[in-house]
Amino acid sequence: MTSRQPAVRTSAGVSEPSAARRATTPLTVLEVLRKSADYLAGKGVENGRLDAEHILSHVLEMGRLHLYLHFDRPLSPGELAACRPLLRRRAAREPLQYVLGSAPFRNLDLQVGPGVAVPRPETEHLLDALLEVTGRQWTSTSPVGSALDVGTGSGALALALADEKLADRVVATDVSPAALATSRRNAAEAGLEAVDFREGPLLSPVAGETFDLILSNPPYLTTLEWRSAAPEVREWEPRVALEAGEDGLDVIRPLVWAAMPALRPDGWVGLEVGRGQTDAVATIFREAGAAEVEVREDLAGRPRYVFARKAGTTRNAEASPNQSQTRKEPSVG
């Protein structure tokens, strides 16, 4: 009787079969997914199975749904070899988006990597919340005149505004040369080279200019939140893009005071902020002269976005700089 030769487990979790097994029973999609998920889970990765699916989809160049339709498909030695280094990187708690080299954002697929914060779903919803607050007055057929994205990072908000034709002119700033290099590559990849990227802190690169719309996903983690964040955040993403002092408002305060004078009459500022910060940020906007302040929730039902309008000609009856209002969208259910 011929004895069955055991598989040899590698450090990447996907077993490397013996020569006899490679010749007769190559690993299937389902087997690789199970082994990879167990390996990642053992390294503390929270969603090991999901991340394994994304990595295998990336290597095989097929959607995750197609993985489920092809569980019995065998992987070639080359495909297995391509999976292993990506699994090792994810097991080291490198963000999945860095491992894959990209992150989805609304209709875009953005390049990301070390030195650039990962775009998140909460920021995608900032644009939807903006359209709710403004009564969807800006559309692809009736865009806002000029928009500014402060702290653009990968270019997510600026490129989404341009891609969805919500603004005729889009300018984006960032203090990080690495982030701007990435955002410009993303603009070129998406055919949105008209977006104007400028280097410098906050609104310094656009001094003297005014805009109809200013958006930002600024750093807002408190120092304590940063120190207790998952390794994917704390050890890999740029701290300057995420952490903002003891109360998380060290960047938002000067941003608000710089943004309000840079708005045209009836212009809006929209910020994504941290947990428990909406009231404090609304107060800062009122102190900076906002005529109207509104708070909206994210998809998880948490207050996440603060919008402020500068006094102008069309809505002065509702509020004035001396009688600014804060309105919260009521929770549904």
Structure characterization notes:
This protein has 333 residues and is an alpha/beta fold. It has two domains: 19-92, Ubiquitin-associated (UBA) domain (Helicase, Ruva Protein, domain 3, Orthogonal Bundle), CATH 1.10.8.10; 102-328, Vaccinia Virus protein VP39 (Rossmann fold, 3-Layer(aba) Sandwich). 36% of the residues lie in helices and 18% in strands. It has 13 helices and ten strands.
Write a concise keyword list for the protein shown above.
333 residues; alpha/beta; Helicase, Ruva Protein, domain 3; Rossmann fold; eight-stranded mixed β-sheet; 13 helices; elongated; disordered N terminus; disordered C terminus
Brief characterization of the structure:
The chain has 333 residues and is of the alpha/beta class. Helices cover 36% and strands 18% of the residues.
Q: Give the uncertain stretches in residue-range form.
A: 1-8, 316-324, 329-333
Q: What are the secondary-structure elements, in order, as H or E?
A: HHHHHHEEHEHEHEEHHHEHEEE
Just give the CATH class of the largest domain: Alpha Beta
* Helix percentage: 25-40%
Could you state the CATH homologous superfamily of the largest domain? Vaccinia Virus protein VP39
Based on secondary structure, the structural category is: alpha/beta
Determine the mean pLDDT.
89
Terminal CA distance reads 67 Å
Number of domains: 2
